[in-house]
Amino acid sequence: MMDKTININIGGNLFQIDEDAFRILRDYLQAINNRFRNVQEGLETIEDIESRIAEIFQSQKGLAGVISKENVEAMITIIGKPEDFDLGDQEADQPVYASQKKRMYRNPDDLVISGVCGGIGAYLNVDPVVFRILFAVSALVFGFGFFIYLVLWIALPIAHTDTQKRELFGSSFHSSGALNRSGSRTYSGTSSNNTVYNGTSRAGNAISEIFSAIGKVCYIILRVFLIIMGVVFVLTGFLFILSFIMIFIFKYPGAFSTDVFDVSLAYFPSFLNYIVSPSVAPWIIALTAIAVTLPLLALIYWGVKMIFWFKARDGVLSLICLVVWVMSITALSLILFNEGISFAETAKSSSEKILTDIPDTLFILAGSKLSDLKVDKELSIKEEGYSVFINEEERELYIRPYLNINNSDGDDARIVVRKRSSGRSELDALRKTEGLSYNYSLNGDTLLLDEYFKISRDRKWAADNVGINIYVPEGTILKFDRETVKLFHHRHFNRYGNDYWSARWESGNRTFVLTEDGLKAASRTSR
User: I need a labelling partner for 464 at 20 to 30 A (CA). Which of 323, 360, 408, 437 fits?
Assistant: First the structure.
């Protein structure tokens, strides 16, 4: 089995060298740099030594051969060990960068995952393997080592430039002599008294290789996780944007089930024109689109970055998008606040009709029906039983009122219609109640109730509501038709509960008798 070979560049010449010989040569050049980096004309001396090394290698094997461990040891014998060189009085010179302030970075030349441990080791002049072991043990045993490492990964910048690496290594900084596995110069540092060049111990190399393998596995797991999260981000952002466009722009609810929501969102854009001023509605839609789509687009963009793991100079663009988003949120909030003042106060008005002839059986039937109207869309709040019907051609709103049957205290009977609206002031709200148009009529034992009340086109919707409260003596029989049954959205009947009465009404039994406890199902009779 052949040993692994590495390509290196020495003195402008390319050589192939086996891995053991590379380690010895790397440490030798490291020691040469430590010896000459702080002396006058030291760089020139280092370049001359490298040129001499290249000549020796050429004479030993030639450019096409592989440099072995024996070739490197023979070269060292010819040139001499670093400590054999006589520096004279210059050996006592102070390091050039001894007074420079050190700063911690991530070390790109000694990394397993991100270079955090390599940077700490270079900053403290300690073997990075020590910190790798500490982080691994604390992550496995205590659990917080992972989070500390993640924080340092985010907080520490990576040392790219000479200045940054000089701040990282301090006085031990040098930028020529050490070779990486591709043959290019690396930046490293050692203590000022380190003249050892026989390489690190086999145990240290083994531990470094183990952490390197673990780092590669962790990196692969991290990449797979980021790819999965990126796909989730992209799909989520895309589906939400598509849903927003379909519902609020194209108003196409056919692709969505409105039964899932308590509010029919699909029809909200149409209803918006009846809530706010017509001139404000387009601004609300546009600003809402910006406020919603910008975060979703950012989610898609970050998802793509997580999938393909690319870097881009997007700081300015991100800042612009953030400013636009904040401005749109601010403007939308101001507009909604100004429009929301219209609902600041609530007022009620009521009218009452006394029934002179109280029938034993009261038929409550539908007068004007919603089925007779041209209704384009319906907006409903199911929990409240509140439904608004929109006629876009006439620009009118029709709202279903609610019906309550109550036990009168005596033998009298009456019908009370209560109207409620909202406004900027209580007086404004009271004035709006007077504009609500609702009709009913009593003919003998038959009470005809309109299935809706109308809001004219000359004013906006103001959370309007109409309630019909019928007070009749105990024992009165009441018969409903299918339309008037729908007016009961507050079914406080007897002790049974909503499901019980809903089932009875759906089965067709709409004849009831008013008892002390409320309405009670009676035997089926026909008129």
Answer: 408
